[in-house]
Amino acid sequence: MSHGLHAGVRGRASWFLSLVVATSLLSACGGDDAQAPAATQAPTSRLVVDTGTAAPAQGGTLTLKATLLDKNGQEVQGAKFAWASSNDAVATVVSAADISPAAASVTQPVGIYATVRLLAAGEADIVATATLSDGTQASSTTHLSVQPAAAKTYALTLSPSTLTLNTGAAAQAVTAVVRRSDGVDGVADLKDWSWSTDNSAFAVTPASDSRSAKVSTTGTLAAVGQLTACSSTPAGDRLCANTALTRPAVPLPAIGFSVSSLSINPGHTGTVTATFTDAQGANLAGQATLAWSIQQSGSAASIVSIGSGGSVTIGMDAAQAAAYTATLTVTATYPDGRFNSSSLPLSSPGLWTRLPDAPIANPSIVRVAIDGTRVWRLTADGTHPARLERFGANGSTPTEPTASLPATANGIWLAAATNPANSSLMVQLGQDDVSTPFGYMDADLAGLRTDVALHGCAPSGGRSFVKTTDGIGIASMGWCANSWQYWLQRVGSAATPSFPAATVAPILDARPFASGDRGMALHNDGVNEVLHDDGSMLGYTYPSPATLSLGAVAADVADESGRVYGYAASLGIVSRPFPGASYASLWNLPPAFVQLRAVPNVIVGLSASSFSLRKLDTNATVTVGLPMGSTPTDFVSAVDADGKVRIAATFVDGSVWLYQEP
Predict the structure, then answer these.
(1) Is the dihedral of CA 566, 568, 569, 571 positive or negative?
(2) pLDDT score, position 620
(3) Peptide bond into 345 cis (omega under 30)
């Protein structure tokens, strides 16, 4: 008879089940009275089946190993094994081999292996039969109780779990990540996806397969929110996962100004423009609404007008004689309700502004020139190279020429042109002599200097220059001190000297015409003459009623009809109104002048205590106090585009002060 022994199941993660079954070989038996035919009895053997470990479950596999042992426990060699299942619907033998299957994860003992696939929950017997070469057989039965497959579970997360979105940037992707309990990606098992956010500041657009989505934002304020994705498992469970959303506020534009500070002379205006620079990717600058304000302790500064493009024009009260400071502020408000501000220093120098200290300490020579917007200063000490500077309005940061000047430089004059951009600056490079070294360059000091020699005398009484109407040439006049001698000369050409045709009285002033071929001179007896470059002269011999101590030819003189002005303590200010006319009184009781200049439509006189501006169109007089409380050693004057007088005055301490008429 045959019988099978069942061993218990041992647990192992590889899904093997271990079972040892001892069996006896088949034997014949007979009665007491009669003896059956003779038969050979096989030695007792055991067939051992090893299944590994772990409980069988639906969907898994088992590897079985059969070993035939003799009565002494020694392995019997040469046996052939066959495998069968009592219930193929539950468990079926899919393969058998004489070596361990490749799927085995540990070294197995020598033996025969079978692979059983577990198809369904239920009961099944796996029968192993060993057959020896002589036909003797042994068998073993392994009983399997196959358990139902464990239900699959799912875990849903979103990647990334946190997301920062910037306005104006590209939408960013969020992807669903699904892990099944068996370690497999389970995203394809889920269905009925939904994506949403809890803050309308964020927009979500699911992909066509609903397994990912794009998130974007368009607002400018800071915002936080949560993105939620949900889906259903095959069992109908609803899973949800979240991504935290953050939107930083769009930075407000940086506010700047077209100038670092704004200085305005009394009675004048100044304009500044606010500039707005967006942060990268932002677009708020063009949406700002601007409001301008002035913070001040008085009321001298005021907003005159607000222009387009962020500009504002500020006016300064003409009565503000002293230095004044205030603050100009612009406040920008944006569509999202936020705002920011920036401020600019605002000031007025008062009537006078001091130029920065000279670059040469204790200069022995300080000379100045002026026009409607610029001031030039030459300083020298006779030892170091002379320094030439050009200042803008109110003595702003100076510009110097690239080429250095000799230490002997001692004078500067402006050769003014109708268009100030074409003006030239003349620099005397050496001492006065019959041939005096000069150099000239463009008035902004940006070009190269051209050196020339001009006619002269020692000591010199003065010089004047003008840019000729062709915009290229420079005409000059010069005269000797305390002498009737003067000359007309185009720079680069020979000089045309005067001769004592009508008078031998000393020259007070002389100016060339912009035509370049003539110039006018004024003697202290009131005689004035026109000298032509061909050597001819035209004299107007009506003398003044008294000897003139000061005289000035109008700075804008253009021909013989140009006006000349004289001053004598006994006469006041007199003028020849037209060629050939007698002198007429313009101002019979002026202060005691020590210097006199004539700019277009204004006579500028310097007394010991003040400047006087005599307006020729109204005969009104403006008195301007001196900034140092002492009398300047020299001054030059001009008018700006509005006809307002500008004065650059030098003082004995070497300082230079600027006056701008309100």
Answers:
(1) negative
(2) 95
(3) no
